[in-house]
Amino acid sequence: MSTTLSIHNPATGQTITTLPAHSPEQVAELAARARAAQPAWAARALAERMACIRGFREAVLREQESLAQTMTAETGKPIRMSRNELGGLIGRLDFFLAEVQRVTATETVYDEGGMTEQIEHLPLGVVANISAWNYPWFVGCNVIVPALLTGNAVLYKPSEYATQTGLAIARLLHEAGVPADVMVCLVGGGDTGAALLAQPVDGVFFTGSVATGQRIAQAVGHRFIRLQLELGGKDPTYVCDDADPRAAAESLADGAMYNTGQSCCSVERIYVHESIHDAFVAHFVDTVRGYRMGDPTRDDTYIGAITRAPQLAVLEAQVADALAKGATLHCGGHRGAGPGNWFEPTVFSGVDHRMELMREESFGPIIGIQKVSGDAEAVRLMNDTRYGLTAGVYTPDAERARRLLSQVHAGSTYWNCCDRVSPRLPWSGHGDSGVGLTLSTYGIAAFTRPKAWHLRRG
User: Fold this and answer.
1) Model pLDDT, residue 1
2) What is the spatial distance between Cα 33 and Cα 28, in angstroms, rounded to a whole number?
Protein backbone atom coordinates (compact mmCIF):
# COMPACT_ATOMS: atom_id res chain seq x y z
CA MET A 1 0.00 0.00 0.00
CA SER A 2 1.29 3.47 -0.88
CA THR A 3 2.34 5.49 2.16
CA THR A 4 1.90 8.85 0.42
CA LEU A 5 -0.60 10.51 -1.88
CA SER A 6 0.54 13.05 -4.47
CA ILE A 7 -1.90 15.83 -5.34
CA HIS A 8 -1.59 17.19 -8.88
CA ASN A 9 -3.03 20.21 -10.64
CA PRO A 10 -4.83 18.77 -13.70
CA ALA A 11 -4.58 22.09 -15.54
CA THR A 12 -0.77 22.21 -15.37
CA GLY A 13 0.32 18.69 -14.48
CA GLN A 14 2.36 20.06 -11.58
CA THR A 15 2.47 18.46 -8.15
CA ILE A 16 0.70 20.61 -5.56
CA THR A 17 1.69 18.62 -2.49
CA THR A 18 2.33 15.13 -1.16
CA LEU A 19 0.37 13.88 1.85
CA PRO A 20 0.85 10.87 4.12
CA ALA A 21 -1.76 8.19 3.35
CA HIS A 22 -3.52 6.21 6.05
CA SER A 23 -2.41 2.60 6.42
CA PRO A 24 -4.90 -0.23 7.03
CA GLU A 25 -3.78 -0.29 10.65
CA GLN A 26 -4.44 3.43 11.03
CA VAL A 27 -7.85 3.10 9.35
CA ALA A 28 -8.78 0.34 11.81
CA GLU A 29 -7.64 2.44 14.77
CA LEU A 30 -9.61 5.47 13.61
CA ALA A 31 -12.69 3.34 13.01
CA ALA A 32 -12.46 1.94 16.55
CA ARG A 33 -12.15 5.46 17.96
CA ALA A 34 -15.18 6.57 15.93
CA ARG A 35 -17.16 3.62 17.31
CA ALA A 36 -16.21 4.57 20.86
CA ALA A 37 -17.03 8.26 20.35
CA GLN A 38 -20.36 7.87 18.53
CA PRO A 39 -22.66 7.17 21.52
CA ALA A 40 -21.67 10.40 23.27
CA TRP A 41 -22.23 12.38 20.07
CA ALA A 42 -25.66 10.79 19.61
CA ALA A 43 -26.50 11.54 23.24
CA ARG A 44 -25.94 15.26 22.73
CA ALA A 45 -29.07 17.33 22.30
CA LEU A 46 -30.00 17.84 18.66
CA ALA A 47 -29.69 21.59 19.24
CA GLU A 48 -26.00 21.13 20.06
CA ARG A 49 -25.34 19.14 16.91
CA MET A 50 -27.23 21.73 14.87
CA ALA A 51 -25.10 24.49 16.42
CA CYS A 52 -21.98 22.73 15.15
CA ILE A 53 -23.35 22.63 11.62
CA ARG A 54 -24.32 26.31 11.83
CA GLY A 55 -20.74 27.07 12.83
CA PHE A 56 -19.53 25.03 9.86
CA ARG A 57 -21.86 27.04 7.60
CA GLU A 58 -20.40 30.31 8.88
CA ALA A 59 -16.87 29.05 8.32
CA VAL A 60 -17.63 28.07 4.71
CA LEU A 61 -18.94 31.57 4.06
CA ARG A 62 -15.93 33.13 5.76
CA GLU A 63 -13.36 31.09 3.81
CA GLN A 64 -15.33 30.73 0.58
CA GLU A 65 -12.74 32.25 -1.74
CA SER A 66 -9.76 30.28 -0.45
CA LEU A 67 -11.81 27.07 -0.45
CA ALA A 68 -12.80 27.74 -4.07
CA GLN A 69 -9.18 28.30 -5.05
CA THR A 70 -8.18 24.98 -3.44
CA MET A 71 -10.94 23.10 -5.25
CA THR A 72 -10.00 24.65 -8.60
CA ALA A 73 -6.31 23.85 -8.12
CA GLU A 74 -6.82 20.15 -7.43
CA THR A 75 -9.79 19.39 -9.71
CA GLY A 76 -9.37 21.82 -12.64
CA LYS A 77 -12.91 23.16 -12.10
CA PRO A 78 -13.29 26.74 -13.42
CA ILE A 79 -13.11 29.13 -10.49
CA ARG A 80 -16.55 30.61 -11.00
CA MET A 81 -18.02 27.10 -10.84
CA SER A 82 -16.08 26.40 -7.65
CA ARG A 83 -17.57 29.56 -6.18
CA ASN A 84 -21.02 28.48 -7.39
CA GLU A 85 -20.66 25.12 -5.66
CA LEU A 86 -19.73 26.67 -2.34
CA GLY A 87 -22.50 29.22 -2.64
CA GLY A 88 -25.03 26.50 -3.45
CA LEU A 89 -23.84 24.44 -0.48
CA ILE A 90 -25.28 27.05 1.91
CA GLY A 91 -28.83 26.31 0.73
CA ARG A 92 -28.30 22.60 1.28
CA LEU A 93 -27.02 23.16 4.80
CA ASP A 94 -30.00 25.40 5.53
CA PHE A 95 -32.36 22.67 4.29
CA PHE A 96 -30.81 19.99 6.50
CA LEU A 97 -30.92 22.32 9.51
CA ALA A 98 -34.53 23.26 8.85
CA GLU A 99 -35.79 19.68 8.44
CA VAL A 100 -33.76 17.42 10.72
CA GLN A 101 -35.83 17.99 13.85
CA ARG A 102 -39.10 17.14 12.09
CA VAL A 103 -37.65 14.07 10.36
CA THR A 104 -36.10 12.60 13.51
CA ALA A 105 -38.84 13.45 16.04
CA THR A 106 -40.41 10.45 17.75
CA GLU A 107 -43.82 9.75 16.19
CA THR A 108 -46.89 8.58 18.07
CA VAL A 109 -48.83 6.57 15.49
CA TYR A 110 -51.48 5.03 17.77
CA ASP A 111 -52.84 5.91 21.21
CA GLU A 112 -56.06 4.16 22.23
CA GLY A 113 -57.33 1.89 24.98
CA GLY A 114 -54.23 2.18 27.09
CA MET A 115 -51.92 1.18 24.23
CA THR A 116 -49.48 3.64 22.66
CA GLU A 117 -47.39 2.89 19.58
CA GLN A 118 -44.41 5.05 18.71
CA ILE A 119 -41.60 5.18 16.16
CA GLU A 120 -38.22 6.40 17.36
CA HIS A 121 -35.52 7.36 14.85
CA LEU A 122 -32.05 6.25 15.98
CA PRO A 123 -28.71 6.87 14.25
CA LEU A 124 -27.21 4.04 12.22
CA GLY A 125 -23.99 4.30 14.23
CA VAL A 126 -20.74 4.63 12.27
CA VAL A 127 -21.06 5.32 8.54
CA ALA A 128 -18.42 5.16 5.81
CA ASN A 129 -18.51 7.78 3.08
CA ILE A 130 -16.36 7.23 -0.01
CA SER A 131 -16.92 10.41 -1.94
CA ALA A 132 -16.44 11.99 -5.37
CA TRP A 133 -14.18 14.67 -6.82
CA ASN A 134 -16.42 16.41 -9.35
CA TYR A 135 -18.56 18.22 -6.74
CA PRO A 136 -16.64 17.43 -3.56
CA TRP A 137 -18.50 19.87 -1.31
CA PHE A 138 -21.95 18.93 -2.57
CA VAL A 139 -21.42 15.17 -2.70
CA GLY A 140 -19.48 14.98 0.55
CA CYS A 141 -21.86 17.13 2.56
CA ASN A 142 -24.93 15.34 1.19
CA VAL A 143 -23.75 12.48 3.42
CA ILE A 144 -21.62 14.06 6.12
CA VAL A 145 -24.03 16.73 7.31
CA PRO A 146 -27.25 14.70 7.71
CA ALA A 147 -25.21 11.83 9.14
CA LEU A 148 -23.74 14.08 11.83
CA LEU A 149 -27.02 15.84 12.54
CA THR A 150 -28.75 12.50 13.16
CA GLY A 151 -26.06 11.38 15.62
CA ASN A 152 -23.74 9.23 13.53
CA ALA A 153 -19.96 9.17 13.42
CA VAL A 154 -18.49 9.51 9.92
CA LEU A 155 -15.43 7.88 8.39
CA TYR A 156 -14.97 10.00 5.28
CA LYS A 157 -12.59 9.17 2.45
CA PRO A 158 -12.63 11.97 -0.09
CA SER A 159 -11.55 11.21 -3.62
CA GLU A 160 -7.80 11.23 -4.08
CA TYR A 161 -8.48 13.93 -6.69
CA ALA A 162 -10.10 16.23 -4.10
CA THR A 163 -8.26 15.35 -0.92
CA GLN A 164 -7.34 18.88 0.11
CA THR A 165 -10.98 19.83 -0.13
CA GLY A 166 -11.90 16.82 1.97
CA LEU A 167 -9.39 17.82 4.62
CA ALA A 168 -10.83 21.34 4.61
CA ILE A 169 -14.34 19.97 5.18
CA ALA A 170 -13.10 17.99 8.19
CA ARG A 171 -11.09 20.91 9.57
CA LEU A 172 -14.02 23.31 9.46
CA LEU A 173 -16.32 20.78 11.12
CA HIS A 174 -13.78 20.21 13.89
CA GLU A 175 -13.37 23.94 14.40
CA ALA A 176 -17.16 24.22 14.62
CA GLY A 177 -17.26 21.72 17.49
CA VAL A 178 -17.62 18.27 15.94
CA PRO A 179 -15.20 15.95 17.81
CA ALA A 180 -12.21 14.71 15.80
CA ASP A 181 -13.12 11.06 16.49
CA VAL A 182 -16.69 11.64 15.26
CA MET A 183 -15.71 13.21 11.94
CA VAL A 184 -12.67 11.41 10.52
CA CYS A 185 -11.07 12.22 7.16
CA LEU A 186 -9.05 9.36 5.65
CA VAL A 187 -6.33 10.16 3.12
CA GLY A 188 -5.44 7.76 0.33
CA GLY A 189 -6.53 6.00 -2.83
CA GLY A 190 -8.17 2.66 -3.51
CA ASP A 191 -6.20 0.82 -0.86
CA THR A 192 -7.43 3.19 1.82
CA GLY A 193 -10.98 2.77 0.56
CA ALA A 194 -10.64 -1.02 0.73
CA ALA A 195 -9.33 -0.78 4.29
CA LEU A 196 -12.32 1.37 5.20
CA LEU A 197 -14.77 -1.16 3.78
CA ALA A 198 -13.16 -3.86 5.93
CA GLN A 199 -14.23 -2.02 9.10
CA PRO A 200 -17.41 -2.99 11.02
CA VAL A 201 -19.39 0.06 9.90
CA ASP A 202 -23.18 0.38 9.93
CA GLY A 203 -23.58 1.95 6.51
CA VAL A 204 -21.64 2.66 3.33
CA PHE A 205 -22.40 5.68 1.16
CA PHE A 206 -20.49 5.87 -2.12
CA THR A 207 -20.49 8.10 -5.20
CA GLY A 208 -18.46 7.04 -8.22
CA SER A 209 -18.20 4.57 -11.07
CA VAL A 210 -20.36 1.51 -11.70
CA ALA A 211 -17.32 -0.77 -11.55
CA THR A 212 -16.27 0.49 -8.12
CA GLY A 213 -19.88 0.43 -6.92
CA GLN A 214 -20.16 -3.22 -7.91
CA ARG A 215 -16.98 -4.06 -5.98
CA ILE A 216 -18.30 -2.24 -2.91
CA ALA A 217 -21.64 -4.05 -3.10
CA GLN A 218 -19.83 -7.39 -3.30
CA ALA A 219 -17.55 -6.47 -0.40
CA VAL A 220 -20.29 -5.49 2.05
CA GLY A 221 -23.42 -7.24 0.73
CA HIS A 222 -23.09 -10.21 3.06
CA ARG A 223 -23.11 -7.89 6.09
CA PHE A 224 -26.67 -6.56 5.61
CA ILE A 225 -25.81 -2.95 6.35
CA ARG A 226 -27.22 0.23 4.85
CA LEU A 227 -25.80 0.72 1.35
CA GLN A 228 -26.19 3.74 -0.92
CA LEU A 229 -24.51 3.82 -4.34
CA GLU A 230 -24.72 6.81 -6.67
CA LEU A 231 -23.12 5.58 -9.89
CA GLY A 232 -23.74 8.17 -12.58
CA GLY A 233 -25.81 8.09 -15.73
CA LYS A 234 -26.20 8.60 -19.46
CA ASP A 235 -28.75 11.35 -19.11
CA PRO A 236 -31.05 11.97 -22.11
CA THR A 237 -33.13 14.96 -23.17
CA TYR A 238 -35.78 15.17 -25.88
CA VAL A 239 -36.45 18.46 -27.71
CA CYS A 240 -39.98 18.37 -29.11
CA ASP A 241 -41.11 19.88 -32.39
CA ASP A 242 -42.91 22.75 -30.61
CA ALA A 243 -39.83 23.82 -28.61
CA ASP A 244 -37.85 26.99 -29.33
CA PRO A 245 -34.67 25.54 -30.90
CA ARG A 246 -32.44 28.46 -29.88
CA ALA A 247 -33.58 28.56 -26.25
CA ALA A 248 -33.38 24.77 -25.93
CA ALA A 249 -29.94 24.67 -27.54
CA GLU A 250 -28.51 27.35 -25.25
CA SER A 251 -29.91 25.64 -22.15
CA LEU A 252 -28.76 22.16 -23.14
CA ALA A 253 -25.29 23.30 -24.22
CA ASP A 254 -24.79 24.56 -20.69
CA GLY A 255 -26.27 21.33 -19.31
CA ALA A 256 -23.83 19.27 -21.36
CA MET A 257 -20.68 21.33 -20.88
CA TYR A 258 -20.97 22.84 -17.37
CA ASN A 259 -18.12 21.69 -15.11
CA THR A 260 -16.45 20.47 -18.32
CA GLY A 261 -19.16 17.83 -18.61
CA GLN A 262 -17.96 16.15 -15.42
CA SER A 263 -21.31 15.87 -13.64
CA CYS A 264 -23.41 12.80 -12.91
CA CYS A 265 -26.44 14.64 -14.28
CA SER A 266 -24.72 16.31 -17.25
CA VAL A 267 -26.81 16.06 -20.40
CA GLU A 268 -25.10 13.19 -22.25
CA ARG A 269 -27.42 12.49 -25.20
CA ILE A 270 -29.94 14.70 -26.98
CA TYR A 271 -32.83 13.66 -29.21
CA VAL A 272 -34.35 16.37 -31.40
CA HIS A 273 -37.51 16.22 -33.47
CA GLU A 274 -36.65 16.15 -37.16
CA SER A 275 -38.62 19.31 -37.91
CA ILE A 276 -36.31 21.52 -35.81
CA HIS A 277 -33.20 19.34 -35.75
CA ASP A 278 -31.00 21.38 -38.09
CA ALA A 279 -31.85 24.71 -36.45
CA PHE A 280 -31.20 23.22 -33.00
CA VAL A 281 -27.81 21.82 -34.03
CA ALA A 282 -26.74 25.17 -35.53
CA HIS A 283 -27.65 27.10 -32.38
CA PHE A 284 -26.07 24.42 -30.17
CA VAL A 285 -22.75 24.50 -32.03
CA ASP A 286 -22.68 28.32 -32.01
CA THR A 287 -23.22 28.30 -28.25
CA VAL A 288 -20.48 25.75 -27.57
CA ARG A 289 -17.99 27.57 -29.80
CA GLY A 290 -18.48 30.60 -27.56
CA TYR A 291 -17.28 28.77 -24.44
CA ARG A 292 -13.76 29.77 -23.40
CA MET A 293 -11.41 26.89 -22.56
CA GLY A 294 -8.29 27.67 -20.57
CA ASP A 295 -6.81 28.62 -17.22
CA PRO A 296 -9.41 27.56 -14.61
CA THR A 297 -8.38 30.40 -12.29
CA ARG A 298 -9.65 33.01 -14.78
CA ASP A 299 -13.14 34.35 -14.15
CA ASP A 300 -14.07 34.09 -17.85
CA THR A 301 -13.07 30.42 -18.27
CA TYR A 302 -15.99 28.08 -18.89
CA ILE A 303 -14.26 24.83 -19.95
CA GLY A 304 -11.65 23.71 -17.44
CA ALA A 305 -9.29 20.76 -17.22
CA ILE A 306 -10.27 17.10 -17.17
CA THR A 307 -9.67 16.07 -13.56
CA ARG A 308 -8.58 12.48 -14.22
CA ALA A 309 -5.98 11.99 -16.97
CA PRO A 310 -7.25 8.45 -17.86
CA GLN A 311 -10.57 9.97 -18.93
CA LEU A 312 -8.89 11.59 -21.93
CA ALA A 313 -8.45 8.17 -23.53
CA VAL A 314 -12.14 7.37 -22.93
CA LEU A 315 -13.16 10.57 -24.72
CA GLU A 316 -10.76 9.93 -27.60
CA ALA A 317 -12.14 6.41 -28.02
CA GLN A 318 -15.73 7.68 -28.13
CA VAL A 319 -14.76 10.24 -30.78
CA ALA A 320 -13.00 7.63 -32.93
CA ASP A 321 -15.90 5.20 -32.60
CA ALA A 322 -18.48 7.83 -33.57
CA LEU A 323 -16.48 8.94 -36.60
CA ALA A 324 -15.90 5.37 -37.74
CA LYS A 325 -19.66 4.70 -37.62
CA GLY A 326 -20.64 7.76 -39.63
CA ALA A 327 -21.31 10.57 -37.15
CA THR A 328 -20.77 14.19 -38.16
CA LEU A 329 -18.26 16.13 -36.04
CA HIS A 330 -19.13 19.84 -35.77
CA CYS A 331 -16.44 21.03 -33.36
CA GLY A 332 -13.75 19.74 -31.03
CA GLY A 333 -12.81 16.09 -30.98
CA HIS A 334 -9.21 16.41 -29.80
CA ARG A 335 -7.08 16.77 -26.72
CA GLY A 336 -6.08 20.32 -25.93
CA ALA A 337 -2.50 21.43 -26.32
CA GLY A 338 0.01 22.02 -23.56
CA PRO A 339 0.64 20.45 -20.17
CA GLY A 340 -2.31 19.24 -18.13
CA ASN A 341 -5.47 17.33 -19.01
CA TRP A 342 -7.45 19.16 -21.71
CA PHE A 343 -10.17 18.11 -24.13
CA GLU A 344 -11.93 20.36 -26.57
CA PRO A 345 -15.72 20.80 -26.25
CA THR A 346 -17.04 18.34 -28.82
CA VAL A 347 -20.38 18.17 -30.64
CA PHE A 348 -21.62 15.36 -32.90
CA SER A 349 -24.80 14.97 -34.89
CA GLY A 350 -25.82 12.00 -37.05
CA VAL A 351 -25.29 9.68 -34.11
CA ASP A 352 -27.16 6.49 -33.20
CA HIS A 353 -27.15 3.80 -30.55
CA ARG A 354 -24.48 1.71 -32.24
CA MET A 355 -22.01 4.30 -30.94
CA GLU A 356 -20.37 4.26 -27.51
CA LEU A 357 -21.01 8.00 -27.32
CA MET A 358 -24.74 7.29 -26.97
CA ARG A 359 -24.45 4.30 -24.65
CA GLU A 360 -21.58 4.70 -22.17
CA GLU A 361 -21.02 7.56 -19.74
CA SER A 362 -18.66 10.17 -21.22
CA PHE A 363 -17.99 12.38 -18.19
CA GLY A 364 -16.41 15.06 -20.34
CA PRO A 365 -17.25 17.93 -22.72
CA ILE A 366 -18.73 15.79 -25.49
CA ILE A 367 -22.29 15.33 -26.73
CA GLY A 368 -24.22 13.44 -29.40
CA ILE A 369 -27.39 14.85 -31.01
CA GLN A 370 -29.73 12.37 -32.70
CA LYS A 371 -32.66 13.18 -35.02
CA VAL A 372 -35.98 11.47 -34.16
CA SER A 373 -39.31 11.25 -35.96
CA GLY A 374 -41.52 11.84 -32.94
CA ASP A 375 -42.40 11.21 -29.30
CA ALA A 376 -42.58 7.43 -29.46
CA GLU A 377 -39.11 7.06 -30.96
CA ALA A 378 -37.68 9.56 -28.48
CA VAL A 379 -39.07 7.71 -25.46
CA ARG A 380 -37.85 4.37 -26.80
CA LEU A 381 -34.32 5.71 -27.26
CA MET A 382 -34.27 7.50 -23.92
CA ASN A 383 -35.06 4.19 -22.21
CA ASP A 384 -32.51 2.25 -24.28
CA THR A 385 -29.85 2.41 -21.57
CA ARG A 386 -28.62 0.58 -18.49
CA TYR A 387 -28.67 3.85 -16.57
CA GLY A 388 -31.56 5.87 -15.15
CA LEU A 389 -30.45 8.96 -13.28
CA THR A 390 -32.09 11.97 -14.99
CA ALA A 391 -34.08 12.73 -18.14
CA GLY A 392 -35.64 15.86 -19.62
CA VAL A 393 -38.10 17.16 -22.18
CA TYR A 394 -38.26 20.60 -23.82
CA THR A 395 -41.72 21.68 -24.94
CA PRO A 396 -44.11 24.52 -24.03
CA ASP A 397 -46.81 21.87 -23.43
CA ALA A 398 -46.82 20.85 -19.76
CA GLU A 399 -49.23 17.96 -20.28
CA ARG A 400 -47.09 16.56 -23.10
CA ALA A 401 -43.94 16.83 -21.00
CA ARG A 402 -45.52 15.05 -18.05
CA ARG A 403 -46.89 12.30 -20.29
CA LEU A 404 -43.51 11.69 -21.89
CA LEU A 405 -41.45 11.88 -18.71
CA SER A 406 -43.79 9.49 -16.91
CA GLN A 407 -42.71 6.83 -19.43
CA VAL A 408 -38.96 7.40 -18.93
CA HIS A 409 -37.05 5.38 -16.34
CA ALA A 410 -35.20 8.02 -14.33
CA GLY A 411 -34.87 9.10 -10.72
CA SER A 412 -35.15 12.81 -11.61
CA THR A 413 -37.04 14.39 -14.48
CA TYR A 414 -36.77 17.90 -15.96
CA TRP A 415 -39.20 20.01 -17.95
CA ASN A 416 -37.50 22.84 -19.87
CA CYS A 417 -34.43 22.64 -17.64
CA CYS A 418 -31.52 20.27 -17.01
CA ASP A 419 -28.45 19.49 -14.90
CA ARG A 420 -30.23 20.61 -11.74
CA VAL A 421 -30.21 19.21 -8.19
CA SER A 422 -32.39 20.46 -5.33
CA PRO A 423 -31.91 19.70 -1.61
CA ARG A 424 -35.71 19.42 -1.35
CA LEU A 425 -35.93 16.50 -3.80
CA PRO A 426 -34.48 12.97 -3.47
CA TRP A 427 -31.42 12.16 -5.58
CA SER A 428 -31.74 8.58 -6.78
CA GLY A 429 -31.57 6.45 -9.90
CA HIS A 430 -32.67 3.32 -11.73
CA GLY A 431 -30.54 0.45 -13.00
CA ASP A 432 -26.80 1.05 -13.08
CA SER A 433 -27.29 4.56 -11.72
CA GLY A 434 -27.32 2.93 -8.31
CA VAL A 435 -29.38 2.20 -5.21
CA GLY A 436 -30.53 4.32 -2.29
CA LEU A 437 -30.71 8.10 -2.23
CA THR A 438 -29.45 11.32 -0.76
CA LEU A 439 -31.08 14.76 -0.28
CA SER A 440 -34.68 15.62 0.65
CA THR A 441 -36.19 14.54 3.95
CA TYR A 442 -35.74 10.94 2.76
CA GLY A 443 -31.99 11.63 2.54
CA ILE A 444 -31.98 12.67 6.19
CA ALA A 445 -33.98 9.62 7.27
CA ALA A 446 -31.50 7.41 5.37
CA PHE A 447 -29.05 7.89 8.25
CA THR A 448 -31.48 6.60 10.86
CA ARG A 449 -33.08 3.29 11.75
CA PRO A 450 -36.63 3.11 13.09
CA LYS A 451 -37.28 1.54 16.46
CA ALA A 452 -40.84 0.44 17.26
CA TRP A 453 -42.27 1.04 20.77
CA HIS A 454 -45.34 -0.84 22.06
CA LEU A 455 -46.35 0.84 25.35
CA ARG A 456 -49.26 -0.41 27.48
CA ARG A 457 -50.30 1.62 30.46
CA GLY A 458 -51.34 -0.03 33.72
Assistant:
1) 53
2) 9
